[in-house]
Write a structure and sequence with these properties.
By secondary structure, the protein is an alpha+beta fold. It has twelve helices and 19 strands.
């Protein structure tokens, strides 16, 4: 994706990246894996080495306890096969990871790695229309959750709550995954026509031309009631842009006389923890996280607009200032759903614990208390590896997921009918008391 040249970065370095780079170097330069006698054993031993040395998740059984039995079973199977293919080693590893039960730690195929690499460059960018959609399990079509600013969908007027019922004349009536596949195939072809329903309006046909990936999905502020701002944070990537925008928008809400903010983290898949800490610093005086693992031990703090990386003794290693530090002092409600993941969950927990925020919505995905590193493998694959357990700044453990104070289903069919139930509940909670 392109970064907008007009945006001023919130901090000049990535503190978390600097600290975790040390872990990457240790992983890359650690003890060499011995030569295995088959492709299956070679890939198994390579991944097993990373799991033994660097895994830092909070699970009942460390990978070191699971690997010996899996290696012995693979040995026995390879003895019967001869030139044991790599696929058997990968199958054995998938079994270990399934038994481990850590949703963060997983293998990414070489094909997926290559696709991500293409998407990260300026060349051969994939074509998109710029909508985030969800397929209702018990309904038809695809409900639009967001139209990315600057995208073909946004230019055509698609908006949150619209329902795509047909693509190029094909009605979306199949299973949820197949409905998404129909849209993706049409986007890949380039030009497409979608039939859109909007609550209270007749169906309309919209012509879309797929184009390059649009810019970031930045935070936005709108007004949903008198004195109540709706701060949507659809992504925590890139950290410096998100942090700067959130502090700027919080300051704008204060300047406009708002008395309450709704921080919307629904469908936010997370990002980096420096974004979590910097954003949380806009809502309370001392935000932070501690990261503890076999090769990782550091903290992130945000004190009065100064973002710092600290060592296990609290000494500052790196620091940088946010250019537009703001501090919200009014009421806060946080919106989450089952698709709020990883560091976005951690941000919601921070605001719930330390900013007095009430959380409305659904229990989150369950990845709130771990940090990961992408480890390259010799076969072109990647191992997404949990390298640290994440703690609150005072050392207290974090739960794996956010439990809302007020449970409200985030139903896409209700959204398509014109009712954003979690948002409406938040507005009711923040409404001033009637005389």
């Amino acid at each position: 994706m392109h970064r907008s040249a007009s945006r001023r970065p919130a901090f000049r370095r990535s503190p978390r990246g600097l600290a975790v780079l040390l872990a990457c170097w240790v992983l890359a330069s650690g003890p060499a894996v011995g030569q295995a006698e088959s492709p299956a054993l070679a890939i198994f031993d390579e991944v097993a080495q990373h799991l033994r040395v660097a895994y830092g998740g909070a699970v009942p059984a460390h990978p070191s306890l699971l690997l010996p039995a899996a290696r012995a079973a693979l040995d026995a199977r390879c003895a019967r096969v001869g030139d044991c293919p790599q696929e058997l080693g990968l199958m054995a590893l998938e079994g270990v990871l399934a038994e481990l039960g850590d949703a963060h730690t997983r293998l990414i195929s070489a094909e997926a790695v290559a696709r991500m690499a293409r998407e990260a460059t300026d060349d051969d960018e994939p074509r998109v229309i710029g909508v985030v959609v969800r397929a209702p399990v018990d309904g038809l079509g695809l409900v639009v959750l967001d139209a990315v600013p600057g995208s073909a969908a946004a230019r055509a007027g698609l908006a949150r709550g619209d329902r795509i019922m047909a693509v190029d004349g094909v009605f979306l009536t199949a299973a949820a995954g197949e409905r998404l596949a129909v849209l993706e195939a049409a986007v890949a072809r380039g030009d497409l026509r979608v039939t859109v329903l909007r609550a209270g309006a007749p169906p309309r046909e919209v012509e879309l031309v797929a184009g390059p990936v649009p810019g970031q999905r930045p935070p936005s502020l709108s007004w949903v009631a008198e004195g109540v701002g709706w701060l949507r944070i659809p992504s925590l990537v890139p950290a410096e842009v998100v942090a700067t925008d959130v502090h700027r928008l919080v300051a704008a809400a204060e300047a406009a006389g708002a008395h309450a903010l709704i921080v919307d983290l629904r469908d936010d898949l997370g990002g980096t923890y420096d974004a979590v800490v910097a954003v949380a610093g806009a809502f309370h005086a001392s935000a932070g996280r501690l990261f503890v693992g076999p090769l990782v031990g550091f903290g992130l703090r945000c004190d009065d607009g100064l973002l710092r990386v600290v060592d296990p003794f609290g000494r500052t290693l790196v620091s940088d200032a946010l250019p537009d530090d703001a501090r919200w002092t009014g009421a806060v409600v946080v919106l989450v759903n089952a698709h709020t993941q990883s560091s976005a969950e951690s941000l919601a927990l921070d605001l719930q614990r330390h900013a007095g925020a009430r959380v409305v919505g659904e229990a989150t995905a369950g990845l709130a208390n771990t940090a990961v590193q992408m480890v390259p493998l010799s076969n072109g694959m990647r191992l997404v590896l949990t390298v640290a357990t994440v703690y609150d700044l005072d050392g207290s453990p974090l739960p794996p997921r956010v439990t809302p104070d007020v449970f409200v289903p985030d139903d896409p069919l209700r959204l398509a009918a014109g009712h954003d139930d979690p948002l409406e509940t938040a507005i009711d909670l923040l409404a001033p008391p009637r005389p």
